[in-house]
Amino acid sequence: MVDFNKLIDYFENLNIPENMLNRGQLVLNEFLKPIKILFEHRSVPKEPWSDEQIEFLLTTLSNMDTDKDTEAARVGEREARIVSKLHLQTSAGFCHGIGRSGFLTAPQPKAPGGSIMYEISNYLARDVLRNFGLPNIKEAIVVPLCTGMSLSLSLGALRPEKEINNSYLKRTVLVPQIDHKSLLKSIELMGLRPKIIKGKIFGDAVRIPFEDIESSLDDDCYAIISITSFFPPREPDNLKEISKLANEKNLNHIIVNAYGVQSPEWMKLIRSAIDAGRVDAIIQSTDKNFLTPVGGALIASPSIEKITKISQAYAGRASATPVVNFLISMLSIGINGYHKLIEEQKQNRKLLEEKLIELAQKFNERILEIYNPVAVALSLENLEQKELFALGGALYNLRVTGPRVYNPKEKAFGTCCENYHTPYIVMNAAIGSKTKDITSAVKRLEKAYLQITQK
Q1: Tell me: the pLDDT tens digits for 169-214?
Q2: Rounded Cα distance, 189 and 366, in Å
Q3: Quick one: how far is CA 208 from the chain centroid?
Q4: Is 60 exposed, middle or buried (0-12, 13-18, 19+ CB in 10 A)?
Q5: 338-453: which CATH topology?
Q6: How far apart are CA 328 and CA 17, in angstroms?
Q7: ∠372-130-252 over CA atoms, to 5°?
């Protein structure tokens, strides 16, 4: 076995000068040092790794899996057999996936390298959440599922068994109104009944009063969902009071923190909720928070037992690709890099509001007064019905992606309430956005506005 930390010992009797060998060993040791630290500390590195270091780590671990064993006699129905080297690239070599059937975090006998990779990724998931606002969580796992499917998994895993004096399983989930189809589908997929508490208008903001949530509780309820990050005009829920209610009434409490890790303000709400009462699971997207391709989520909890339940509820073996994508992001960004991304996000959010205020003054519109650390909403009160419909298409043709144009008179879904008073457009300054994205998008919004009003 080659010890790379003592590689030059193999060449000491050759004609290469000793000082050259020592210099080479020094460079190699510096290359390998972050990997050694990762194995020892199992935490997100302070500084980002190079792509070469990440690739070396992934290649080394994936070569521990049994599908790389040229002498193996593989007679199982699932042996990570592939037909193209492109499969190796898209999975980073982890063709066996992660977990065992029925237990997501269980070591996989055919994938010792993949098991190590997943174990490290889960340590990094917990570490990054602790570093950026949730020091009071005990466990976190990366799941190869979107946010909505992660909610389904969590709701199914935490559903109580039949009680002694109860002939049926509770099936109602309290949902402060969230106008997002994937979240509603995630509840219905599990055969559960969402009991939606309607949003109410407070000035420009839409909130769900806590007293309405409390009065909606009935004997069939076993869980409650709350949210942090969402589109204006919806503001975050009163997580602290909801967690107290969950604790008092023995309700499972799941927080959907879809893109909230990037906001210290949203994370503070979750931290306070954990301290105040009961929080069973917190779900966040990997692509929205950690700049990965779509397809993964982090599920965290202040309870190790709850994370174990959720991991044991996963049906089948899982793809390693979303996990690898998260690991790559964490090693590529590092703690200091993520701090920098958060600061950039704050500055871009401020810039977006400033630019939209300037635009509002030109068109006699206004910025809606809504608490949201990522998004800004601009009124569109001076546009006619047909112009509101045309604005989204005009922006798309000008190559602006992501804005949301709402006309409450045409469609209420999305406003999280009934009879919202103002048509509006929402633009986001989310993590990873660049200053040029903000300035360019607002300029093109102005152009689109003029295009549709001057026809």
Answers
A1: 888 999 999 999 999 999 999 989 999 999 999 999 999 999 999 9
A2: 40
A3: 24
A4: middle
A5: Aspartate Aminotransferase, domain 1 (3.90.1150)
A6: 38
A7: 75
Provide the residue ranges of all domains of the chain, joining segments of one domain with +: 338-453
Using an 8 Å Cβ cutoff, are 268 and 383 in contact?
no
pLDDT tier, 101 (very low <50, low <70, confident <90, very high otherwise): confident
Give catalytic residues, as residue numbers.
78, 100-101, 108, 180, 258, 288, 317
Position 334 scores a pLDDT of 96
Q: What is the pLDDT of residues 294-352, one digit of tens each?
A: 999 999 999 999 999 999 998 888 888 999 999 999 999 999 999 999 999 999 999 99
Cα–Cα separations (whole angstroms), residue 382 to 86, 202, 333, 417, 423: 53, 22, 44, 22, 9
Q: What is the pLDDT of residues 364-384, one digit of tens each?
A: 999 999 999 999 999 999 998
Peptide bond into 135 cis (omega under 30): no
